[in-house]
Amino acid sequence: MSMTNYKRNFLLRVLIIVILFVPFFYTSSCTTQKYIRSINYNFKKDNSKPDYSKLNYWAAHPFKYDPSDNIPKGIKDKSKDSLADVFFIYPTTYTDKKMPMGWNAGINNKKLNKKTDNSTILYQASVFNKYCRVFAPRYRQANIGAFYTLDTAKGEEAFNTAYEDVKAAFIFYLKNYNNGRPIIIASHSQGTLHAGRLLKEFFEGKPLQKQLVCAYIIGLPVFDNYFSQLKPCSVSTATGCFISWRTFKEGYTPGYVKEETLKADVINPLTWTMDTTKAPVRLNKGAVLKNFKKENAGLVHAQIHKNILWVNKPKFFGSVFLRIKNYHIADYNLFYENIRENVGTRIYSFLERNKRLN
Length: 358
What we know:
This protein has 358 residues and is of the alpha/beta class.
């Protein structure tokens, strides 16, 4: 997950995908803390650093209403008692190439915060709300240009600034909310860059590793040599491990992937294994598309192809206009219900395993 040439090429394509693809896909625990029933976007701070003691600085938090509380229409399995916590790190939504806020987004930018909440928090973070309390910190995310700039020092500095916020939020979460509960780390794209660092710094070889249910670190490659102790989740019930994939139209492998010299660990979200056999559409329990209206079962099949995941072109109203072959923006959407169910499977497996050990 270091800054390499493939990322610069990758993110150039992602910017195009965000513009073209987003319209199709992004269009509880007892506590004495007061529950906030509305979202406040009108907040200011004298310095640029977020204050995680205030709910405004969380895009998702169990003590306030936010889009991660929603579910697509038609889902009957509404949220159950939370059995674990998910710490979700959202992807890049600061995509303006002109970088009006500089290399890093402002923490209290109303327009960007709304964009984040109504895209990734709604369509990605909500997948965890059946079994988990959802924590997703606002952070000074790096502009998308940080991935492909020739000024690598500036790019690294931008990512470091973003990670320092994520790290501060996680420390605050541990001190004030966790209380020994099982933890899931989840992320997408830029969020996965930061999640990898977080897992290395706080979990690998540390006492906290015993609380790790799993990590859904999606949208960027996780190469074989990245972690020293964490392993890929090779079966649906595995815990203390990570899950990763990148989604493309079958038959297509972008140039930057072809240039990768290391093996990336890929999990098929329809089988939750590393088997390279094609998983049929009947295993796809529900994708989420435009307007969060409903789940669409059987939308795509999935097959691991070397370092990536191949799927068929999804068919839905308007899909005739879908020309792109990189489905990065839909890494979560295409497998929404499968992820939702697997979260519960792994949590129950984790709890049962720990019960036996104790």
